[in-house]
From TrEMBL:
Record key words, sorted: Antibiotic resistance, ATP-binding, Nucleotide-binding, Transport
Name used for this protein in its record: ABC-type transporter ATP-binding protein EcsA
Domain ABC transporter: 2-236
Entry keyword annotation includes Disulfide bond: no
Source organism of the structure: Nonomuraea coxensis DSM 45129
Name of the gene this protein is made from: ecsA
Pfam hit, one: ABC_tran
Keyword match Transport: yes
Gene3D superfamilies documented for this protein: P-loop containing nucleotide triphosphate hydrolases (3.40.50.300)
């Protein structure tokens, strides 16, 4: 398990901020083997700082990062796959040479690096661009190469900062499928993203960070259930004024009336609805991750 515990980080201030800026204020969560964890928050919330500390690019003021019960060190981090926010590719190097080079840096033999490179280029859809310089590729294809670099050494953990940013739907699906395959093989995957619908679709668990603090964390189902306090009732062709006096609002779509209620006596709502007409739906409405995010960071 990847365990991040009570991370704190303050950056030195300048003339406009003499006290410095608190980037992290007790951030902590864990990612289990085979789990995909979505780390979300607004710009400047602390996502990238957390990932840089995990990878040893920055040092925390306090707190710890452990893998498999041991504090992370250089050797352990070499077995991680990292995709930084600022992409780190050599622009004039050919695609195939680039991926092989990073495989060798991570300790692969030349034949192993070559084999892994060929498999990843085919899987990620850049095999036809193998001899092109990175600078000649589109942003989407550069993203694919960057992911191949993170995957080439078969990492034990994947830490990806905004891996889907700027990608078209086909590229998103290719990357998502690759990450899901790694998860099924037991690799913990943590990635940050502003695409909350994508996070909701892919992730087992989600952590929401705001102003350097964790404001919500859990499985998607747990987060949605915790915020599920809106009752949704759909009645077909009801009698006029059937919902008068009930808390909530009614919207009309053809002969269907939709009542949304927060609080109140749900049994009374059900009795009124059944008396008024045919009840087609009666249940708690599950919020989207976007709605949960807006509520959490407010």
């Amino acid at each position: 398990m990847l365990e991040i515990s009570e991370l704190r980080k303050r950056f030195a201030g300048g003339p406009d901020a003499p006290g410095g800026k608190v980037a992290l204020d007790g951030v902590g969560f864990s990612v289990r083997p085979g789990e995909m964890y979505g780390f979300v928050g607004a710009n400047g919330a602390g996502k990238t700082t957390t990932m840089r500390i995990v990878m040893g690019v920055l040092q925390a003021d306090s707190g710890s990062v452990s893998w498999d019960g041991r504090l992370l060190d250089y050797d352990a981090r070499r077995r991680f796959g990292y995709m930084p926010e600022e992409r780190g590719l050599y622009q004039k190097m050919r695609v195939v040479e680039q991926i092989e080079y990073f495989g060798r840096l991570h300790g692969l033999s030349a034949p192993a690096a070559r084999k892994a490179t060929e498999e990843l280029m085919e899987r990620l859809g850049v095999a036809e661009r193998r001899n092109d310089a990175v600078q000649a590729l589109s942003l989407g294809n550069q993203q694919r190469v960057q992911l191949a670099v993170a995957l080439v050494h078969d990492p034990e953990v994947l830490v990806l900062d905004e891996p889907f940013s700027g990608l078209d739907p086909i590229a998103v699906d290719a990357l998502a499928t690759t990450l899901q395959d790694r998860c099924r093989g037991g690799v913990p995957v943590i990635f940050s993203s502003h695409q909350l619908d994508l996070v909701e679709r892919l992730c087992d668990s989600v952590g929401i960070v705001a102003r350097g603090r964790m404001v919500a964390s859990g499985t998607v189902a747990e987060l949605r259930a915790a915020e599920s306090d809106t009752l949704r009732v759909v009645v077909r062709d009801p009698a006029p004024g059937w919902a008068d006096g009930l808390p909530g609002t009614v919207t009309v779509n053809g002969d269907r009336h939709v009542l949304r209620v927060s609080g109140g006596d749900d049994q009374e709502v059900l009795r009124r609805a059944m008396k008024a007409g045919r009840v087609e739906h009666f249940g708690v409405e599950q919020p989207t991750l976007t709605e949960i995010f807006k509520e959490a960071v407010a």
